[in-house]
Amino acid sequence: MLVVAITLLFIDLPILDPALSIVITAFVLYNVAHNLRSTSVFFLQGVPDDVDLAALEHNLTILDHVQSIHHTQVWSMDGVQHVLTTHIVVDDRRDPVPTGGHQRPV
């Protein structure tokens, strides 16, 4: 922009100003299009790119006493922290082991 302003001081070439505006607009539109998909997935609470949902379900189904898993949903709260909700059907056990509210990464 500064180069165009200095050039217009010495040379009467009025087309430079609108041409620079078009270049800046094209640059902004390119960056919007480039980031639109990832932003849309985030706002629509889609599955994050770094989460393999099939592998996650498989790792949960191989745990002891797990019969099946359904309605699994993963989304990102802020782009870094992800949330998982799922329905897990477990064996009917007579001696339930209390979890005590502990959480661990899967």
List keywords for this structure.
single chain, 106 residues, alpha+beta, 2 domains, two-stranded antiparallel sheet, 3 helices, 2 strands, 43% helix, rod-shaped
Query: Quick check: average pLDDT?
Result: 83
Shape: rod-shaped
Reading the helices and strands in chain order gives HHHEE
Helix content: 40-55%
Q: What's the gyration radius in Å?
A: 27 Å
Strands, count = 2
In total, the number of domains comes to 2
List the helices and strands and how they pair.
Layout: H1 2-10, H2 16-43, H3 53-61, E1 66-76, E2 82-90
Antiparallel strand pairs: 1-2
Structure write-up:
- The chain contains 3 helices and 2 strands; from the N terminus they run H-H-H-E-E.
- Strands 1-2 form a two-stranded antiparallel sheet.
- The protein is of the alpha+beta class and 106 residues long.
- The chain is rod-shaped, with a radius of gyration of 27 Å.
- A hairpin with a 5-residue loop joins strand 1 and strand 2.
- It has 2 domains: 2-43; 53-90, no CATH class.
Short description:
The chain contains three helices and two strands. The protein has two domains: 2-43; 53-90, no CATH class. Helix content is 43%, strand content 19%.
